[in-house]
Design goal:
By secondary structure, this protein is an alpha+beta fold. Helix content is about 40%, strand content about 20%. Strand 1 and strand 2 form a beta hairpin.
Length: about 210
């Protein structure tokens, strides 16, 4: 089944849409996929956020192939490798997707990019799965062992922590408090989130 393209459909709190958080959240998630793609030498990278109410995963940021048209597309949360990672809460690396039964080729074909290999890790914060980070066709060195998968999982955890800083509830609270302060609190939250990613990027580049 081809994923729905109704990007205007409502998200749960975990998916965080249609709020003042949209701009900094989009900036944060684009930073996540761009950095992940660069660090792991991947052809593409994407972040899916979990819409708990609809039980779907939604493309929220893409770097590389498909970034022009994939954002907002949805598919069932239990489908494919991203679905397995979201359900299990465990990272996964697959060197040969053609031989992996978890790989949903029809879903990949609907995105106009069928990778040969991928790495994926859950976005987990406070024991809650917010979504999945994938890197598609990473360099052979990047997918060569457990160490690299651990690095991706660590990056995904840090990204999830940064994302939770920008959840709608917290941004609304910040907006209310910032009325008399010219919006400084909301800006500070965005900067805090991006600093988390910046720190981890430096760490990953130092040990990669």
């Amino acid at each position: 089944m081809t994923p729905r393209t109704d990007s205007a459909a409502p998200f749960s709190a975990a998916a965080a849409t249609a709020t003042v958080a949209d701009a900094p959240r989009s900036e944060l998630l684009q930073s996540v996929v761009d950095v992940a793609r660069a660090i792991f030498g991947a052809e593409a990278s994407s972040v899916f956020l979990l819409d708990e109410e609809a039980d779907e995963l939604v493309f929220q940021a893409v770097s590389g192939q498909g970034e022009e048209f994939l954002v907002g597309r949805r598919f069932p949360a239990g489908r494919g490798i991203a679905g397995w990672v979201a359900t299990s809460g465990e990272p996964m690396v697959v060197d040969d997707l053609s031989a992996d039964p978890s790989f949903d080729r029809s879903l990949a074909e609907s995105t106009a990019y069928v990778p040969n290999a991928l790495m994926a890790a859950p976005l987990i914060s406070d024991a809650r799965i917010l979504g999945v980070l994938e890197v598609l066709d990473p360099s052979p060195q990047a997918r060569s062992g457990v160490r690299e998968l651990d690095l991706l999982a660590m990056f995904a955890r840090q990204a999830a922590a940064a994302l939770r800083v920008l959840t709608p509830e917290r941004v609304r609270e910040a907006e209310e408090r910032a009325v008399s302060a010219g919006g400084a609190l909301e800006g500070a939250r965005r900067e805090d989130a991006l600093k988390l990613l910046g720190s981890l990027e430096r760490l990953l580049r130092g040990v990669g």
